[in-house]
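Q&A log
Question type: sequence-to-structure
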Amino acid sequence: MFIFSSVQSQDINIIPKPKSLEVNVGSFTINQKTPIVVKNAVNMASAVFLRDYLKAYYGFNLKIKKSGSTGIILNTNEKAAAKDGYSLISNKKASIITGETNTGTFYGVQTLIQLFPVQKSKVLNIPAVTVNDAPDRTYRGLHLDVGRHFMPISFIKKYIDLIALHKMNYFHWHLTEDQGWRIEIKKYPKLTSVGGWRNGTIIGPYPGTGTDGIKTGGFYTQEEVKDIVAYAAKRFIEVIPEIEMPGHASAAIAAYPYLSCFPDESTFIDKNTAWSGPREGKQVQQTWGVFDDVFCAGKESTFTFLEDVLNEVIPLFPSKYFHVGADECPKKHWQRCPNCQKRIKELGIKSDKNHQAEHYLQSYVIKRMEKFLNGKGKSLIGWDEILEGGLAPNAIVMSWRGEEGGIAAAKEKHRVIMTPNGYAYFDHQQEKHDDSVTISNNRWFLPIEKVYSWSIVPTSLKDDEKQYIWG
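Response status: OK
Response body:
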């Protein structure tokens, strides 16, 4: 558990820490007869969420009322230029939550939940407090990679609940990878029947001590995706899909080899890599890393495929944003691919002191896909590699290789989501002698204290540039 409170000691911990917290004398008691009072119809969803939570975890079944001055009172007082802030005042008679917006009221409910005692009992004593809080940044998200490891629907929903508990508002769903394609595309069924499965997985941290030899995988149907999106929306969370391009494409290429620069070449498997099953032909990757076989940027059939995929994915996600990955795309195949070299020549792309021509070819791919997405009413997000060769006009940069990419993008007046691996990657070791499998393999150490020490907005930015740090 993340909490929490002791009325006796007044040891109250709310995550994230609110802007102000005042501990008062006394407590508020919740029992089976405590009503949830909804002052505004818009707060009904928050009331239902709280009622269902209390029933699931404590066995309470509280009634929802439209009027009253005692109990748990939910109210929204719409304010101009509101930032989803809220106040929570609990005393002997009531716990009153007032949001600047409907979302703010929901965040107040999450704070109330964090004040509940851990142990189940017939009554819940809530400390008398006055809390005022509001988010500092618009984007507050959590990423989940289901490409390398498929996660069941039940886990996805639990993950979304934890996002809500911490008052985050975006779920970044990483749906395609070298190790598995996880979303149903009806026009291309092999993406999931072939690309959704691998014949084994390395044992232990990369590069592994062997392979488990177990065929593993899975995917989400379009109906399941709609269910997840609706589940998140009820918790005021927007789901942003990520479909990787032009790199991290091994699973897609295993399903449809023509997407590769060299369809007839078998997937390269290092002789020192543990492997299960056939090595001939195009294969879904069984280990982690960066692989040379990427989408061919010289064939129009590649863009037809990508646009077809996006045409099926876009209607599933109401979000205004669409993540295209664009990280870790080796240019080795493009350098010897006649189709890619022809494209470079036709576009008049030249190498210069900053980048090889193939880097500018990646910029062409991203700019072309951004134009397509903008035409569908979507804004493109990409990892900081999209800076190489020139940013797409309206792109949002997600800075993962440290903060440098985000700083550069902000200076170019592009919105930035800061996700530096030195502070925000929770698949790194959290203890010096961590016995769990982590990506770091004793190379990276990220204790929780370092995470909390991070200042999201780089001090090197000028005041007028800091506004572009979206979250």
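Response note: The two ends are 26 Å apart (CA to CA).
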